[in-house]
Design goal:
mainly alpha; single chain
């Protein structure tokens, strides 16, 4: 039938050339025969029988697939129209064909169909295509073929076993995707197919080859990328599930073991391929790189759905073990030498990615356990082990404690059993982790010192342990890097004295090795306990390190890392220190001068080149130029070096070519190393889009740390943190160019990364990246520069910072507070109120509230800081929030909120913590206000304001005093209203537990007084002008608060009425002065003087009624003025001059007296009682009134007459009379007798004499005065003489003081008045002695021996011999003078007066030269002793008691004279009558 030619075939065509189709043949038959419905079925049966007799089953299976366009399908011929019917009809037809063929051949239909399908599958795979993947055409054919196989399998006409056997016969042409599709379309599972192969080794080889080809072809250019990844994923799932399943069924042990072995071998082969390729080095675009990258990327897709968790964990654990033990060719000595090359950053990214995935899936705890187990039981590849440790500590912050505990166990085991392997392992792990930087692990120096630097070290248990340690350290010397030997030498183990030789032997060995390596200890900055002092350079003696390259100064500001630094870095620090000293003193620093002589090599080789660095000279000479010129004038700079410096500076002043045209200059030398760092920071910022990827971000942070070390040109940071202090100059912070470039780049990157991270996640869900970044900034080398830059930004440029900068720096401040005491303290500068501050308090001190601009910036910064901190720790307890913030910052926020927002002064409904005001927005002022109030209303925030974080009344006062009224954001009226609210409405009624006053006005006044006095003492330093003080309208806000204090004191007086006891103000002053009373040092004395000055100023600004308060016309007056009298006698008296208090306090007292009289029923009696009491209780008030009588009398007269319309009280009239007597005494003519009391008249006369300008005047009227007047007058003259030397000024003329004393002394000697009593005054003396001691400062009375011997030339010889007590007084004064000299009390005496006396030919010794005075006094005594009568030299042993050794010559002369003088009564004739 097929060969019958159709009609018309002979006309124009060759029948052999073209075969007609089956449809054409049928068409011809239709035309010839008539239609008969019964012939249809017959015809169909005939066609089927025809096909069965001539069919090829293989071709038939492939023909079922859709033919090309235009070609009829088999199912169409069979009359199947629908798709479902099409497939079913075709499959049923093929099934019946297989049954007929099997029946004909006599074989089972399943075997026949399996062989046929396998043959067809082989034909599909043999077509040209991808090495492991099917083409699109092949995929369609195979899909249809597998559909038929599924039908046959469903109808029990297909044998899987036979099919697998037939497939493996064609394994060389079998494609991996075809095998995978058998599994996917449920024809034969991969496990069944693989297990059916007779040769397992062949299966392993086939799978390994095809998986490698598949990995090699998977890239972005692969047309079937999704299919390829699915193929790889399913095969990995099968291999993992079969290779690491738990064999619980004993009946399948052998079967399972075979498949498990295949799977394990394939996985191991692929991993070995990757590890070998990584070890050999990979090129980015190579096929091996694609294979390794693809295979290791499989671990990113784990876990798979078909793999149990236990199997997956076993696989990962096995993989980690295989990685650590693969190719263990490196020894421990190789690891010691090369581990620096195996850091996280230098490890191949593909390997670190594998580590991260394994560690994530296993957890850090299991990973550390696996590491420990592998190291204990197997030979390891040290490179892989140590790079895994680096990845562990870098990417998993929680692993820090795990690694430290592991190392501690290793060290304990090593010293318990003297196990060397444990010791090696511990040292390698610590060094590997430490080289990743301080942000992830403590430095090696810290660990070594903590382990061996104390008596609790591992080595301290026995001598054997010591020997073991030093033997181990010595064995490391040939292999380890210099920096580790430097750590061992600079931080040596603590060794008992009897085993010191072990240490010295090791030090000698290490120094020899360092010398061979050309590494030095000299350029290292020693830690604080071992650093050279400011003026000397000493190191611990047993090292005997040369000091030639060590610096001039003790640099406590930075703990340099223990690396091979060059001496020029130390010299640069010395130059900066020398410039700072030169700016303050104007003189060449002493260490520089000493170095130019004693350390000339360092001075010429390092210091001068650092000082003479070429630069563009400023128009006006700066401190550096001035120091250079000073050294040049002192011949301390060689001429050639100075000429080269000048030439280089002139060259530097020439602008580079192209600069004028606006061309971009080439990057400077300082900018070149920052390129890699910028790239690393840019990549980190890109990762911030998903800040929850903690391991990826941690890995990138390690890259940043590595690039940062390169930019800073220093190696591993092995110096301990927190050692020493950081010195900064807050008023003028400066950074070197390279440091500022690096710090600015880091701070900008931190702010930008924070903005990116905050745009996608709130702070509490950003992970630990910010804390890790800040830990990188906290290295000992970088931290001083970071803090200096923060000082510039926050303290000097704060108001100009943008919102993004404010948010970023606020978060930085929060994280800087997290380490707490781990960071070193900061010394803000020589003028700072505190010597050192913790970092959080230092950062808080940079925020000021002096002006409107600084206050607004401070409020913005505090809002951002507190919001960020609250977001970070909101789910955690309050202690976490408190630990990262300074109380001062929280208090400033509360202060400014009260000050700027009246809404916050009234109770408002608190909001929940859901809407924290934090976000990367460029906030406008209105937005900042809303954010601040939102934070303030947070209920959670208000709960945190407890304890030291609550703003108390004293804290509010201190901050308010910092405000400068001229630059305040509030007007005068607004400020007064604010003060009124804060004091009377907020803090006065508030309970003391919350910082209030419990409604007690006296408590409020006490707090205000203390704060004012504290502020006054601190306002003259650090950020305050010398002219600032308690002046209303001045530079500080104390004027307004002083007004509030005056109001409160008056209100309190009106409330309490007439006082029956002393005023509370004096109790406040006493509480402040008492702690300073016992100190004998100069600092304590100066502090006490400053405190007294503040007390005096406070009293002058309070109402005078405090001094003389509520006096009534009754006795006694003690309870009313006792406190003020005590203050004058004990404190203010020591500030008096010439027996008188200052004018202001004197006037203030008499104002108080007039005020008391005005409120008294008997003003005359009140005044008289008060002044009478002053004569015995506080006499210096009366002498002060006489000293200032010329200005005091008009005020008293005017106010008394206006108020009382009567003459002055009697006691005031007596003062008038004494003043009149003094005026008449100096006038020519007769003089009336001195009024009583005589000492008052003597004081008036003394002050009158001081006002006379003439020198050498004679006063013959003294001979007519009473003895009671002459002795006090001589005392006042002596005090005046001492004052001329203690406080030299134009008001007291030393020459006139000497003349006055001489004139009075001559009169006293002429009239035989006992004047020696003035030099024997004691507090227990009654009468005049006790009174005179209260009229002079204690320092003056202590220096009376100086006055005594300054008048030697005025002692009359005959008077001296006749005075029986003179020798006793002279000897006592001499020994007291010697004691004063030995105690250093004579240093306060000035010399100008002595020189003036010498110019005028005065031969008498003067206090200005204590040594000369003592010499003259000794000579005088030695001449006087033989001339004295026996009665004058008796009882000398009692006088010399305890002082014989002070001057043996004088003591011997006194004692020998006492024994040699005979009793003259024995040679006199007896009187009989």
């Amino acid at each position: 039938m097929a060969g019958s030619p159709p009609p018309g075939a002979a006309a124009g065509s060759d029948p052999l050339r073209r075969r007609r189709s089956w449809a054409e043949l049928l068409a011809g038959r239709v035309k010839r025969q008539k239609y008969n419905p019964e012939r249809g079925p017959k015809l169909k049966d005939s066609a089927v029988q025809l096909l069965r007799r001539h069919q090829s089953l293989s071709d038939l299976l492939l023909e079922v697939e859709a033919p090309p366009c235009g070609k009829p399908r088999l199912d169409a011929v069979m009359g199947c129209d629908s798709d479902q019917g099409s497939t079913g009809g075709s499959c049923s037809f093929i099934g019946s064909a297989f049954q007929d063929q099997a029946l004909k051949l006599g074989v089972p239909v399943g075997i026949l169909s399996a062989r046929t399908v396998a043959c067809s599958m082989k034909r599909v795979c043999e077509e040209p295509s991808h090495p492991v993947l099917l083409s699109t055409e092949q995929r369609k054919k195979l899909s249809s073929l597998l559909e038929i196989a599924q039908y046959l399998l469903a109808h029990s006409m297909f044998s899987r076993l036979s099919f697998c056997q037939e497939v493996w016969k064609a394994q060389n042409s079998l494609l991996l995707e075809a095998v995978w599709r058998l599994h996917v379309q449920s024809v034969v599972s991969l496990q069944e197919l693989l297990e059916s192969h007779p040769d397992m080794r062949a299966v392993v080889a086939w799978l390994f080859r095809n998986l490698r080809l598949l990995c090699q072809q998977i890239d972005t250019s692969c047309p079937s990328l999704d299919i390829a990844r699915a193929v790889l994923s399913d095969f990995v799932e099968l291999l993992v599930s079969q290779g690491f399943q738990e064999n619980s069924d004993l009946r399948r042990v052998e079967e399972t073991g075979t498949m498990s072995q295949v799977a394990a071998e394939v996985l191991q082969s692929m991993l070995s391929l990757a590890l070998d390729a990584l070890a050999a080095g990979l090129q980015e675009e190579s096929s091996d790189h694609r294979v390794v990258s693809c295979w290791l990327g499989v671990f990113q897709a784990l876990p798979c759905g078909g793999v149990s968790a236990d199997a997956l964990k076993r696989f990962l654990s096995h993989t980690l073990t295989q990685v650590l033990t693969h190719s263990p060719v490196l020894k421990a000595s190789d690891a010691i030498q090369r581990q620096r090359e195996w850091s996280f950053v230098r490890t191949h990214p593909l390997l670190t990615t594998l580590y991260r995935r394994l560690l994530v899936m296993l957890s850090p705890e299991e990973s550390v356990g696996r590491l420990q187990e592998v190291l204990e039981t197997r030979e390891v590849n040290w490179q892989r082990v140590l790079s895994c440790v680096s990845t562990l500590v870098v990417c998993f912050p929680e692993a820090l404690q795990l690694v430290q505990d592991w190392v501690a166990r290793l060290m304990a085991h090593a010293f318990e059993s003297y196990h060397l392997d444990s010791m090696v392992t511990a040292f390698l792990i610590v060094r590997q982790a430490a080289q990743e930087g301080p942000s992830v692990f403590p430095s090696y120096a810290d660990w070594f010192k903590a382990s061996f630097g104390s008596a609790r070290g591992y080595h301290s248990c026995s001598k054997k342990a010591l020997v073991f340690l030093f033997k181990f350290l010595s064995s490391l010397v040939p292999w380890e890097a210099p920096r580790y030997m430097q750590v061992h030498v600079l931080y040596p183990p603590l060794v008992p004295g009897k085993y010191r030789t072990l240490l010295t032997d090791y030090v000698a060995l290490a120094k020899t090795r360092l010398a061979d390596l050309k590494a030095s200890l000299h350029a290292l900055a020693l830690p604080a306990p071992l650093k050279p002092s400011l003026f000397s350079c000493s190191c611990f003696s047993f090292l005997k390190v040369s000091l030639e390259n060590m610096g001039l100064y003790e640099h406590l500001s930075s703990s340099e890392d223990v690396t091979e630094n060059q001496p020029h870095s130390q010299a640069a620090q010395d130059v900066e220190k020398a410039l700072l000293v030169f700016e303050h003193t104007g003189k060449i620093p002493v260490p520089v001068m000493e170095a130019s002589i004693f350390r000339r090599s360092y001075y010429l080789s390092h210091f001068l080149p650092a000082l003479l660095t070429p630069r563009v000279l400023p128009s006006a000479p700066d401190s550096r130029e001035a120091l250079i010129e000073a050294l040049k004038r002192a011949d301390k700079i060689p001429q050639s070096l100075y000429a080269a410096y000048c030439q280089a500076c002139s060259t530097a002043e020439k602008p580079p070519e192209g600069a004028a045209s606006g061309m971009r200059a080439e990057p400077t030398h300082a900018e070149e190393p920052l390129g890699p760092l910028r790239v690393a920071l840019r990549e980190l910022r890109a990762l911030m889009a998903d800040p929850t990827q903690a391991d990826v971000i941690s890995a990138q942070m390690a890259v940043v740390s590595e690039r940062l070390s390169t930019a800073l040109e220093h190696g591993d940071d092995d110096s301990p943190q927190g050692r020493g202090r950081i010195q900064l100059n807050v008023l003028a912070p400066e950074l070197q160019q390279q440091e500022q470039l690096v710090v600015d780049l880091l701070l900008s990157a931190f702010c930008q990364s924070l903005m990116v991270a905050s745009s996608s996640a709130p702070p509490e869900r950003q992970g630990p990246w910010a804390a890790a970044f800040v830990r990188t900034l906290c290295g000992p080398t970088l931290l001083p520069a970071v803090l200096t830059r923060l000082c510039q930004l926050l303290h000097h440029q704060g108001p100009r910072l943008s919102a993004s900068h404010v948010l970023g720096l606020a978060a930085l401040v929060v994280h800087l507070g997290e380490p707490g005491s781990a960071l070193p303290e900061v010394e803000p500068g020589p003028l700072a109120p505190a010597s050192s501050l913790p970092v959080p308090r230092f950062l808080d001190s940079l925020l000021t509230c002096h002006t409107k601009e600084s206050s607004l910036f401070c409020l913005r910064f505090c809002t951002a800081t507190l919001s960020y901190a609250l977001c970070r720790v909101c789910p955690q307890p309050c202690d976490s929030w408190h630990s990262c913030l300074s109380p001062g910052l929280v208090k400033k926020f509360q202060f400014l909120v009260f000050r700027f927002f009246s809404e916050a002064r009234v109770p408002l409904p608190q909001e929940d913590a859901a809407g924290l005001p934090w976000g990367p927005l460029c906030l406008s002022p209105a937005d900042w206000k809303m954010a601040t109030l939102a934070l303030w209303r947070q209920g959670h925030f208000q709960e945190l304001l407890t304890g030291e974080f609550h703003l108390t009344f004293g804290d509010w006062l201190q901050l308010e005093l910092e405000i400068q009224p001229g630059a305040d954001a509030l007007s005068d009226t607004e400020r007064q209203d604010f003060h009124q609210w804060a004091i009377y409405e907020h803090y006065l009624p508030a309970p003391s537990a919350s910082g209030g006053c419990d409604g007690d006005l006296q408590v409020a006044c006490t707090v205000l007084i203390n704060v004012l006095m504290d502020f006054y003492q601190s306002s003259r330093s650090w950020n305050h002008l010398e002219s600032s003080g308690w002046v209303p309208g001045g530079h500080t806000g104390s004027g307004d608060l002083l007004s509030r204090l005056q109001e409160m004191v008056l209100d309190l007086e009106l409330e309490q009425g007439a006082a029956t006891q002393g005023h509370f103000v004096f109790s406040v002053l006493r509480s402040r002065l008492q702690p300073l009373a016992g100190g004998a040092g100069v600092a304590t004395s100066l502090q006490r003087q400053q405190e007294l000055l503040a007390c005096r100023r406070l009293l002058l600004r309070l109402p005078p009624s405090i001094l003389v308060g509520g006096l009534q016309a009754r006795q006694p007056i003690d309870p009313l003025c006792e406190d003020f009298f005590h203050l004058v006698n004990s404190e203010l008296r020591n500030f008096s001059q010439g027996g008188a208090l200052t004018h202001d306090i004197t006037i203030h007292f008499f104002r108080g007296l007039l005020n008391a009289c005005a409120h008294s029923h008997d003003p005359l009696l009140t005044a008289n009682l008060t002044l009478t009491g002053c004569q015995t209780k506080c006499p210096i008030l009366l002498t002060s009134a006489l000293a200032w009588w010329s200005s005091l009398e008009p005020i008293l007269q005017s106010r008394w007459r206006k108020r009382f319309q009567c003459p002055l009280p009697l006691e005031l009239q007596r003062l008038q009379e004494a003043q009149q007597f003094a005026s008449n005494f100096l006038a020519p003519g007769s003089t009336s007798p001195a009024p009583s009391p005589a000492w008052v008249s003597a004081a008036a006369l003394h002050f009158a004499v001081k006002k006379v300008k003439t020198e050498g005047a004679r006063w013959p009227k003294l001979d007519c005065e009473r003895e009671e007047l002459l002795v006090p007058l001589f005392f006042f003259s002596l005090m005046d003489l001492l004052s001329s030397h203690l406080t030299p000024n134009d008001t007291v003329d030393p020459l006139k003081a000497v003349d006055t004393c001489a004139e009075v002394l001559e009169c006293l000697q002429r009239r035989r008045v006992d004047w020696l009593v003035l030099f024997q005054l004691t507090e227990t003396d009654a009468g005049l002695g006790h009174l005179l001691l209260r009229l002079a400062p204690d320092q003056h009375t202590k220096l009376l021996p100086l006055a005594f011997y300054s008048l030697l030339s005025h002692f009359k010889d005959d008077a001296i011999i006749r005075e029986e007590a003179f020798l006793r007084v002279a000897v006592d004064m001499y020994f007291k003078l010697v004691q004063l000299f030995m105690d250093g009390e004579t240093r306060a005496v000035s010399a100008p007066a002595s020189r003036r006396l010498e110019l005028q030919g005065q031969s008498s010794p003067q206090p200005g030269n204590p040594v000369q005075l003592i010499t003259e006094a000794r000579l005088f005594l030695l001449q006087l002793i033989p001339q004295c009568l026996k009665s004058g030299s008796s009882n000398m042993a009692e006088l010399l008691a305890g002082r014989e050794d002070w001057d043996p010559g004088v003591s011997s002369a006194l004692l020998s004279r006492h024994r040699a003088v005979p009793d003259t009564d024995l040679y006199q004739e007896p009187r009989l009558f």
